[in-house]
């Protein structure tokens, strides 16, 4: 009976009409949905990605830049903001918007090798965009699968242009290509330029604070990648727009600027009215105890003697941990001694574990007890953080902890406690990323990253728009350590802590395309033994960086003459 009833009902005219209405409703919904998507694509007055981006400060000029690129430039633009205004954030907004609208799937980001991991971190933490990089092991194991099977790739420009990878990168269609430090494409005769020119790309963003470094022809080469034919041929360009033999003085500047406005945005600090309070940096050189000094010296000697038995990462890790704390060093030595049969490793590990009073921590406690500022103490290694937490408790220093492996709820609670009640935040490398902690105005770099950009990222957690107080930076180092030499260069020689955030990155890029600061300093340390030889080598590095800084300042002046303030969002 029931079966008959069901059968009759399912085939009744009423049911047929109901099904037809449902079918029409679905068709109507799908049609409306498609119409909505089309309206989104046509209307960039509102960025639909913004509500989901909760971990970044959204400044008006960055949003305007993204809208202009999407609405007027059709996704092909040169982002040439002055240093420190957030070109990476602008690029991230554009990428996020295209993804949110379903207009792109495949993304290729090309960057200097030293910035690959930074881009991956920024895209992941700030925009929720997952990616794979050329640092990943899969690139070595199966290059073809790496380049064709991953939707979002962040690649070292040098890796991508190599003979092994060039054909694979250029054989694929890319929805969006982003090139960071795009001034590396200034010469059309280089593989850098030829690679980007050969990419099958729908949209392309090129980021550089220094579009012209030597001559206007560099601008022609960059803009030709974005919009071929915009400036015709190089001969036509020179005849029409260049009035000097050295190629630096423009002819018909207004006409040239009019053309550039079709593809270029350059926000300036004066336009966006970025006025940050002053920042003051102090190097605190701590005299180590005899046992600490001997441990550091013997470790360095071991690394010099057995360099060929250790990979570069292990050598760097040991030296960085040695500058951080005996606890961090001992942990690493113990792990390494299980892989390598060297009695010295076990001996060094045992000696590290026997050091109970660390001079750096004693000096830090004295500083914090005298200070009335809200202070973030940055560390890199878990063992060092754990040791400092113990020291703080023993010395009645109230603090909150912000560590990478904490839950989101725990991190929020730590920031809240630091803001409302506690004078100190003990933070890991990612401490405060994406959070408003401008209520603090002092930073202690208890252990010093060898990558100047990472030092700058730490400072940028509080020295940013919204900070109303002067900022104080205390850089700790052991006397006679590699960090002491690093600070002599960064602080005393090139005055890094007086530069605008982002300028050090450009200066390091001006040394040469392959330059890596951290690799250079460890090479100096391990290849030289006497104090005199080490000092001489670091002086040479300082001179190279000063020349790069001078070159950057000359470029700034040239770009100011060419562009002025006429390319804002």
From TrEMBL:
Domain Helicase ATP-binding: 68-229
Helicase C-terminal domain sequence ranges: 363-512
Keywords of the record: ATP-binding, Helicase, Hydrolase, Nucleotide-binding
Any GO molecular function: hydrolase activity
SUPFAM superfamilies attached to this UniProt entry: P-loop containing nucleoside triphosphate hydrolases
PANTHER family the record matches: DNA ANNEALING HELICASE AND ENDONUCLEASE ZRANB3 FAMILY MEMBER (PTHR45766), SWI_SNF-RELATED MATRIX-ASSOCIATED ACTIN-DEPENDENT REGULATOR OF CHROMATIN SUBFAMILY A-LIKE PROTEIN 1 (PTHR45766:SF6)
Protein name as catalogued: Helicase SNF2
Species this chain originates from: Brunnivagina elsteri CCALA 953
Lineage: Bacteria, Bacillati, Cyanobacteriota, Cyanophyceae, Nostocales
């Amino acid at each position: 009976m029931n079966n008959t009833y069901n059968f009759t009902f399912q085939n009744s005219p009423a049911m047929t009409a109901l099904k037809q209405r449902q079918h029409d409703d679905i068709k109507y919904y799908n049609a409306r949905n498609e119409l909505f998507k089309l309206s989104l694509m046509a209307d960039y007055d509102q960025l639909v990605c913004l509500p989901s981006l909760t971990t970044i400060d959204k400044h008006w000029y960055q949003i305007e830049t993204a809208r202009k690129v999407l609405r007027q430039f059709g996704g092909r633009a040169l982002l040439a903001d002055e240093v420190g205004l957030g070109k990476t954030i602008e690029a991230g907004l554009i990428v996020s918007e295209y993804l949110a609208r379903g207009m792109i799937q495949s993304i290729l980001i090309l960057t200097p090798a030293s910035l690959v991991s930074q881009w991956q971190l920024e895209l992941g933490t700030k925009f929720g965009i997952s990616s794979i990089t050329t640092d990943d092991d899969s690139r070595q194991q199966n290059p073809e699968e790496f380049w064709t099977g991953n939707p979002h790739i962040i690649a070292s420009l040098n890796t991508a242009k190599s003979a092994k990878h060039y054909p694979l990168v250029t054989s694929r269609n890319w929805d969006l290509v982003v090139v960071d430090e795009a001034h590396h494409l200034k010469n059309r005769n280089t593989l850098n330029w030829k690679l980007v020119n050969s990419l099958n790309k729908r949209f392309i963003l090129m980021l550089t604070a220094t579009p012209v470094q030597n001559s206007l022809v560099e601008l022609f080469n960059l803009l030709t990648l974005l919009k071929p034919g915009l400036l015709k041929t190089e001969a036509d360009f020179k005849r029409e727009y260049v009035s000097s033999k050295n190629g630096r003085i423009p002819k018909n500047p207004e006409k040239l600027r009019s053309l550039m406005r079709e593809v270029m945005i350059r926000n300036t600090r004066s336009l966006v009215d970025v006025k940050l309070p002053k920042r003051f940096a102090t190097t605190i050189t701590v005299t180590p105890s005899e046992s600490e000094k001997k441990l550091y010296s013997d470790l360095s000697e071991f690394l010099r003697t057995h360099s060929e038995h250790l990979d570069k990462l292990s050598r760097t890790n040991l030296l960085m941990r040695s500058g951080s704390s005996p606890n961090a060093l001992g942990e690493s030595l113990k792990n390494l001694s299980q892989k390598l049969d060297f009695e010295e490793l076990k001996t060094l590990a045992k000696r590290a574990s026997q050091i109970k009073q660390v001079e750096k921590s004693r000096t830090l406690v004295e500083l914090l007890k005298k200070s009335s500022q809200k202070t973030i103490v940055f560390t890199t290694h878990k063992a060092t953080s754990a040791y400092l937490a113990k020291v703080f408790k023993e010395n009645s220093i109230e603090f909150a902890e912000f560590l990478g492996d904490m839950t989101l709820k725990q991190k929020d609670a730590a920031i809240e406690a630091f803001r409302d009640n506690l004078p100190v935040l003990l933070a890991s490398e990612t401490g405060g990323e994406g959070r408003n902690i401008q209520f603090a105005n002092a930073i202690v770099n208890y252990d010093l990253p060898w990558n100047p950009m990472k030092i700058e990222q730490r400072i940028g957690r509080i020295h940013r728009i919204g900070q109303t107080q002067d900022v104080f930076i205390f850089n700790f180092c052991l006397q006679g350590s590699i960090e002491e030499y690093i600070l002599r260069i960064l602080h005393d020689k090139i005055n890094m802590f007086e530069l605008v955030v982002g300028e050090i990155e450009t200066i390091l890029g001006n040394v040469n395309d392959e330059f890596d600061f951290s690799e250079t300093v460890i090479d100096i340390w391990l290849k030289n033994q006497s104090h005199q030889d080490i000092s001489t080598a670091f002086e040479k590095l300082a001179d190279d960086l000063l020349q790069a800084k001078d070159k950057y300042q000359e470029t700034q002046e040239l770009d100011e003459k060419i562009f002025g303030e006429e390319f804002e969002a």
